[in-house]
């Protein structure tokens, strides 16, 4: 499976990359000079300036080794651009993210040390990195060395954007703001839908006594909404469409059981509940637990609204050690739902007015996919005549990171 994370605002990031005139593979002496300074600063034989596109990474300048355009699975810099902070890995072979990386594992060049800073355009979008590499481990660079490396990174951006004398004209990216609001707006509506549905049912049942399960769903949805507001305020940037992860070690069992109290009526008014498969995973995982819970709750709510009457949550490790979390219902996708389109940006899978009430997919898919890809994972839907399964797959290194921490 994929080994690299995808920024939440990937489409907007790529628009910024392709709008800069300096982004050509033609090299100039200034970029070679910056790379030479980088490898001397870090005491490394190799330095390069990378540009991360949709499927590949290429180099504006490389010194110390010959590198061609390569797939993102072979890139360290795809991890560097996930935040505005430097990324330093003293020994790549001891980092669960990279121990099986083609550049690190046996048979490859044997990369060991990496230190890089993200390159940030004046639009705020990150497009690549300036980094040093070595084939032997290093101690982490000093704060002063990393500060100088960041200054060199700023020089790369200035040269690319021609500042001075011809500054790049930056205009607001209205599409990224609209997309961000659409995706995040859906996640505000998700707990509100649960809360509203629970309260309506409680109101209808008031004369016969409150239903404890509905009360629990309403309470959890209110908590989720409050947590979502805090997450958006703290970890997002609407101007660039970015959403950052707040990663920590969390028990996977707690994540899967976060949907336990979701008891809601389906379209026909019948209460639906969720059961759990045997042998749920209990191992700790390095992730943003709140974002994974958001993704899981969105899929569960979609199964309740659009799926069959039997809904099951399961989790397991696949043969490669990747973590799989799935929600299965015994409904079939409507014939109007086009599975191929479910993986396109911001597409929900055909005309929403044509959604059958028997297929467990809906509007939560675009955001769910983005949150999973932000974790370096993959999102997949398997559909048959009498079953629909949505699968969240997280890379194996997220479990191994917890084991070595």
Commentary on this structure:
The chain is of the alpha+beta class and 405 residues long. The protein folds into 2 domains: 152 residues, Beta-Lactamase (2-Layer Sandwich), CATH 3.30.450.40; 231 residues, Heat Shock Protein 90 (2-Layer Sandwich). It contains 10 helices and 17 strands. The strands form 5 sheets. The protein has a 6-stranded antiparallel β-sheet. It is elongated. InterPro entries: GAF, GAF-like_dom_sf, HATPase_C_sf, HATPase_dom, His_kinase_dom, HisK_dim/P_dom, HisK_dim/P_sf, Sig_transdc_His_kin-like_C.
Name the features.
405 residues, alpha+beta, Beta-Lactamase, Heat Shock Protein 90, 2 domains, six-stranded antiparallel sheet, 17 strands, 35% helix, elongated
Strand percentage = 15-25%
Total strand segments: 17
- Computed Rg: 23 Å
Tally of alpha and pi helices: 10
Task: List low-pLDDT spans.
Answer: 164-168, 346-363
Average pLDDT, rounded to a whole number, is 80
- What fold name stands as the CATH topology of the largest domain? Heat Shock Protein 90
The best one-word shape is elongated
Distance between the termini: 24 Å
Helix content: 25-40%
- Main sheet: strand order: 3-2-1-6-5-4
Corresponding CATH architecture of the largest domain: 2-Layer Sandwich
CATH homologous superfamily identity of the largest domain: Histidine kinase-like ATPase, C-terminal domain
**Could you state the oligomeric state of the chains shown?**
single chain
Secondary-structure-derived class: alpha+beta
Sketch the topology as an H/E string, one letter per element.
HHEEEHEEEHHHEEEHEEEEHEEHEEH
- Assign the CATH class of the largest domain: Alpha Beta
When the domains are counted, the total is 2
């Amino acid at each position: 499976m994929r080994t690299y994370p995808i920024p939440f605002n990937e489409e907007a990031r790529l628009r910024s990359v392709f709008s800069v005139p300096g982004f050509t593979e033609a090299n100039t002496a200034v970029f070679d000079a910056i790379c030479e300074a980088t490898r001397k600063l870090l005491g490394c034989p190799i330095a390069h300036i990378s540009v991360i596109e949709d499927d590949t990474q290429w180099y504006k300048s490389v010194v110390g080794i010959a590198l061609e355009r390569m797939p993102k699975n072979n890139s360290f810099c795809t991890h560097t651009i996930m935040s505005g902070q430097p990324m330093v890995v003293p020994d790549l072979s001891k980092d669960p993210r990279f121990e099986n990386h083609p550049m690190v594992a046996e048979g490859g060049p044997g990369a060991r040390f990496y230190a890089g800073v993200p390159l940030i355009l004046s639009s705020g979008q990150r497009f690549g990195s300036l980094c040093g590499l070595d084939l032997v481990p290093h101690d982490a660079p000093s704060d002063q060395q990393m500060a100088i490396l960041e200054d060199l990174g700023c020089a790369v951006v200035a040269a690319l954007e021609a500042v001075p004398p011809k500054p790049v004209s930056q205009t607001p990216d209205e599409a990224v703001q609209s997309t961000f609001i659409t995706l995040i707006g859906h996640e505000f509506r998700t707990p509100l839908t649960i809360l509203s549905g629970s309260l309506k049912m409680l109101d209808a049942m008031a004369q016969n006594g409150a239903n404890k399960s509905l009360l629990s769903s309403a309470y959890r949805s209110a908590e989720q909404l409050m947590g979502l507001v805090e997450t958006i305020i703290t970890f997002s940037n609407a101007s660039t469409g970015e959403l950052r992860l707040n990663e920590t070690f969390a028990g996977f069992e707690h994540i899967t059981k976060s949907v336990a109290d979701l008891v809601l009526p389906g379209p026909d008014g019948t209460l639906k509940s969720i059961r759990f498969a045997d042998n749920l995973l209990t191992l700790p995982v390095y992730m943003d637990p709140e974002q994974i819970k958001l993704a899981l709750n969105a899929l569960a709510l979609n199964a309740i609204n659009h799926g069959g009457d039997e809904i099951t949550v399961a989790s397991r490790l696949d043969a490669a050690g990747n973590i799989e979390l799935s929600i299965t219902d015994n409904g079939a996708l409507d014939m109007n739902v086009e599975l191929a389109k479910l993986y396109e940006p911001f597409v929900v899978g055909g005309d929403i007015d044509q959604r059958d009430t028997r297929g467990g997919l809906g509007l939560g898919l675009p955001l769910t996919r983005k949150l999973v890809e932000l974790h370096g994972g993959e999102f997949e839907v398997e559909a048959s005549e009498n079953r629909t399964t949505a699968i969240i797959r997280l890379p194996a290194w997220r479990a191994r990171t917890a084991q070595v921490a």
